[in-house]
Specification:
mainly alpha, 128 residues, two-stranded antiparallel ribbon, elongated, 4 helices
Length: 128
């Protein structure tokens, strides 16, 4: 929307920030606007609806004048086809595995079945 400076200041004051913040953050970037115009112009060209813009610059054409893309039609069976489970299996040969020793709960230490006690500075630790 094209606004005068005093209108822009009213909106910025209402939103609680300065005009500079409003123009830097909330205004649509020109690159996004230009890409949208080019994309819509290409869609109009593809549909044969670009004759009405003959001799005009892209900057003089507003977004409202260019046709919006039409949504692609929904294919009735597409979701069901994707959601059906795949019941096909292939034979996989069995592989013999060696017995693997499970790691001990206390990794990195030798657990030979003996009870151990914790010692700090030569004195056994006791937990209460």
């Amino acid at each position: 929307m094209d606004m005068r400076d005093d209108e822009l200041k009213l909106i910025a004051d209402h939103m609680g920030h300065s005009v500079a913040i409003h123009t830097d953050v909330y205004r649509m970037q020109t690159s996004v606007l230009e890409r949208t115009k080019v994309a819509r112009a290409l869609l109009a060209l593809e549909d044969g609806k670009l004759q009405g813009f003959n001799g005009r610059d892209l900057s003089s054409v507003s977004l409202d004048e260019l046709p919006e893309p039409e949504p692609e039609p929904y294919k009735a069976g597409s979701f069901e086809e994707l959601s059906e489970p795949d019941n096909s299996y292939e034979d996989v040969p069995e592989v013999e595995t060696e017995a693997v020793q499970k790691p001990h709960a206390c990794t990195g230490s030798k657990n030979d079945g003996r009870k151990r006690r914790r010692v700090l500075y030569g004195k056994p630790l006791t937990f209460r």
